[in-house]
Every structure is written in structure tokens, then in C-alpha cells.
Amino acid sequence: MNWRILGTLIAKDFSLFFRKKLFAVLTAIGFIFYIVIYFVMPSTVNENLDIGLYAPVTLPAFTQMQEEGLEIETVESEEALKEGVIEGRYVAGVSLPADTMEKLASKQKPTISLYFTPDVPQEMKDTVVLIIRELAYVQTGQALSIEATEEILGPDMIGTPIPPRDRLRPLLAIMILMVEMMGLANLLSEEMERGTIHALLVTPMSVKELFIAKGITGTGLAFGQSVLFMLLVGGFSGGPLIIVTALLLGAVLVTGVAFLISSVSKDFMSVLAWSIPAFIILLVPSFGVLFPGAITNWIKILPSYYLVDTVHRVANFGSGWGDIWLNLLILLGFCLVITWVGISVLRRRVR
Amino acid sequence: MAREAIEAEELTYRYGELTAVDHISFSVAESEIMGFLGPNGAGKTTTFKMLTGQFKPKGGQARLLGMDVTKNVEKVQEEIGVCFETTNLYEQMSALENLNLFASLFGMRSFDGNALLERVGLGGRGKDRVETYSKGMKQRLMVARSILNKPRILFLDEPTAGLDPTSSETIRNIILEERERGATVFLTTHDMVEADKLSDRIAFMNQGKIVALDTPHLLKQQHGKRALKAKVAGDAGGLEDREITLDTPETPEAVRKLFSQEKVITIHSEEATLEDIFISLTGRGLV
Questions:
Q1: Which of A39, A314, B93, B249 has the lowest tally of Cβ within 10 angstroms?
Q2: CA distance B85 to chain A (A)
Q3: Single pTM value for the model
Q4: Which of these, B225, B229, B201, B226, lies nearest to B215 by C-alpha position?
Q5: What is the pLDDT of residues B34-90, one digit of tens each?
Q6: Across the interface, which of A5, A195, A202 has its CB nearest the CB of B86?
């Protein structure tokens, strides 16, 4: 291994990368844009109990509770109630049947339907049920005299409420990695398209050194920026070392993908054409964090899932090594396989 | 006797079913300029790539400075300079940055890029981005890049193709200077005039084989026809052409008769061109 050659190549690649206006601008603007997005997103979670109520008959106890300040909004129909829940105006919707009073009076159990927003945590659901039972108790003086049925409108989402901008963090971090992936793929495909790689390969530099230099350049660019991003948006508060490890593996992963893309690309347009599917596929797990429950277990076949899940769990839930070691191991496996395949196919093209 | 800088033994390369280079053997002595001539697709560039370690031969062996190219590719590449047929410079970098990059890859600590640029006629343009250069300037920069490590063997693939006369002349002078320095030059071209001017020896390549290899003079002598061409005064006051083939037993008598019996207006000798020889050997032109 000739470190002088490696250093020369890496310096050259960094210099060329930032001379390409498109990628330099994308990198700079994108980076600022991601940080702005993060800080523009709400930083707090609304934990008020906004409850919608559809009640063909007025229960005196409910009226009393409203007067005491509980945020219960009455709607005109059950459909309007459901719409309000789906749109997120109410954390929960309560639908009282028309015969509620009669059933309560005759000691029967009225069936009260409860509608919840997808991301409402279990604790909040339990609270709503308790409130309803309490109201029924206040109304009748008897415990457990109602039947409450829960219905989730939209995909369920379980867990601690997380500010939207923190949910966005893994997505933005992976976006940064992706832009660098495209940049490296373009750099490599240009080397081949313009024949500069052949000029390099008739110097004392070996093919192995070429790949190592390219790998360091790609990984360095992606890793450096994603770390800086996480630093600026407070993503290291959970477990900095774990996040750094995950981002490093993520940077290696996108470098491997960049090798693959450049092996089948001839120019910038084909780099773009191949990068977009890779972009979409690798981004999918981040949407699972943004919209929990929207994506099922199948996303675990995507290598980026293990990066996103690690960043999400560590940055937002404070998970430790013991919780995510398997994630990192699987991610490392994906990195090794994809990078090896990428180098193999690219080597064939170079030679 | 000069040592051999390049030795090819039964060198062969195939692209699938197509044999591009077919068991060719030749050698080039140190400080010699070897011109490799042939039409497009003859196998010149493939031979060039095998000799410079870009392609691994499918058969035979190439040795440079006594080293097997396949087994010692990095050591061999420390000793050679390569100028490619197509421009492959970092266009977004300046000429000086391009040269400094490659000087660094060759491990040259004290390298004067400006002096080299002066030498190839690009003095004062070193800090300009290569993308602003003309084709001739780029090619001169390519040649500069190929000689920056003071190579013992210089490989040039069509170095003057499509260039203006000034750029071509600059490059030819550099090739001769490099030979004076002691470098061996391997020059592939289909420009017969260039090959004739520069080469100590010429190899004609056709359909993957070397069909002739010798000095330009001997090739012309062996395969060409020398003649005297004269214009004489005709009967009707016009000019008529006369041609006398040289190097035959009848030549002296034919020359005597020409001058004694006719009024010679102009006379000059004519040698066969390399293209004539190539056509006579292969039945096809060089383009």
C-alpha cells in the first residue's frame, strides 16, 4: 500500500468533487436545507386531549365536563367525527349511541365507540377510556356500566410521542448520504467516460489503491457531512458513539452502492437514472419512522433499515449497544457484501 | 550492441472470437524509435495496451527493460510514459494541477511543471483550466504528462492525429528530444509521413500480424520501386513524361539514351512511399 499515492488520489477526488458546480451546490444547499427543515419542524408534542364528541342525546355529565375545561368538541355526525380524527384535529373521537340515556337508565350497558388517531400512544387511549368510564360513573353512579369499543382510523402507531423534526432526523441523514453516493458515482463514471482512469492506471498506482482511494473519498464525504448534520441537529444526545458507528457503516454502504451505479453508468444522466431507484429504495425505511405502522416488516430486507432504525432508536429513544448491536452487525454484513459486489463489477469495467 | 528495451514474443490478444493481435514477435532497442504502422483495426492499439500493462496478453509474453509486464506491471509502469490516442485529462483542473497530480503519483519530489509546459509550448497557460484549451494544446499537454517522469520507454498512440501543423511539429520535436535523452519510443500511427520522418524502424501491422519490419530505407529498397521521372520536350511543342526504373541492369543505358536522344526539361528521382509499400504488402491502404 502506497500512502503517498492514496493521499494524492484522495486530494484529487475531493478537489474534483467540489469543482463540480452541481454537486458542490447540492451539497451546500442541501446541507443547509436539511438543517433548516429540522429546525422549522415543531419541536414539541401536543399532549392536550382534544376529543371530538358525537352525541345525538346530551349527557348532563359530558356538558358538565366541557364546562370544567376538558377540550371536548361536539360534532354534527359520526362521519364528521371520524373525519376530524383522521385529519388529526382530535386525538380521540367519542360516539355516543342515541339510546345511551335509556340504556343507562335501565341499567344496561350502552356501547360507546371510540376513534383514535393513528399515532396516539396506548397510555392516551387508556386515559380516554378512563375518562369515558368516569363520565358514565358520574352520570349513573355505577362503575363499568358502559361497553367501549376502540377503532383505529388509519395505521396504528405505538410508542412514545416524538417531535416531528426528530422523526425526520434519520431521513435527512440518509438523504445526505445519498447525495454523496450520487456524487461519487458520477465522479467514477466520469473517470471512465473520459478515460482519465486509464491515465491513472499506467502510473505505478495499482487498481487496489485506486479503489481504496475512491472508497475513502466516498465514505469520507458521506460520513463527514452526516456526522456534521447530526451534530448540528443534536442527534448525538442519545449515544454518540453508536450513531457515529451507524453513520460510518451507512457511508460505506452508499459508497458500495456508488461503485455499483458507476459500473453500469456511462454519463451523468445514466448515473441519475440508476441513482433514483437506489435513492427511493434506500429511503423507504425512513418513512417508516415518519409514519409508524405505514410500513410492515418487509422493510427489514432493505440495508438502510438497519441504519435508520439504529439512528431513530438511539437518537430518539436512547437505546444502547445492547439494543442495537444486531442492527449494526447486519448493516456491516450488507456493507461488506454490497461493497464487494460493487468493487468486483467496477473492476471488470475498469479493466 | 544496444540492449533491448521492448521484447514481444508470440504476443496474442483476443476479443472473444476475434484475434486482434496474432502471435507477434519483435524487439525495440534502447534509444530507438519504433513506428507501428497500420490501418484502423490492425491491432496497433491493442499491442500498445498489452505493452503498457493495460491489457493482459491472452498468449505470449511482453518484456520491458527485462521485466515481464504482466508480473511486474507496477515496476514497469514506473519506467514508462504513456500518451493516449484520445484526450484523457482532468479538464476541470489546470494544466499545472494535472501535471503535479501525475508527478506526485510517480513520487517526484522536485518537479517543475512550468518548465515542462514551456517545453511543449504551453508556457503562461499553466493555470488555465484544461477545458479552455484547444485540441492541439490538450495533446501537447498529454505529451508533457507522458514525459514528466523522464521515462525510459515512451509510448505514444497516434500523438499527432488531427492536429494542426504547429502542434504536430512541436510533438515531433519532443519525440526526437526524448530519444536524444536516451528514451526508447514506441509510436503507433497511421500517418506514414510522420513514421517515415521519426522512426528508426517501422513495423507494418495488418489484421493482427506484423507483415514487415525494418528501417524505412530498407523497406523502401526491398518493397518499393525507385524511378527517375523526367519531362521532355514533345514533338508538338508540349511536354511528355518519361520514367526510367532504377536499380536494373538496363538503367545506365536508358539514362544515356534519355539525355542523348531527347531534350530533358525536368528530371527527378522518386522513391516509393511507405503507403505504396503497405499497399503492395497487404493489398489495402493505411486509413
A1: B249
A2: 10
A3: 0.71
A4: B201
A5: 999 888 888 998 999 999 999 999 999 999 999 999 999 989 999 999 999 899 999
A6: A195
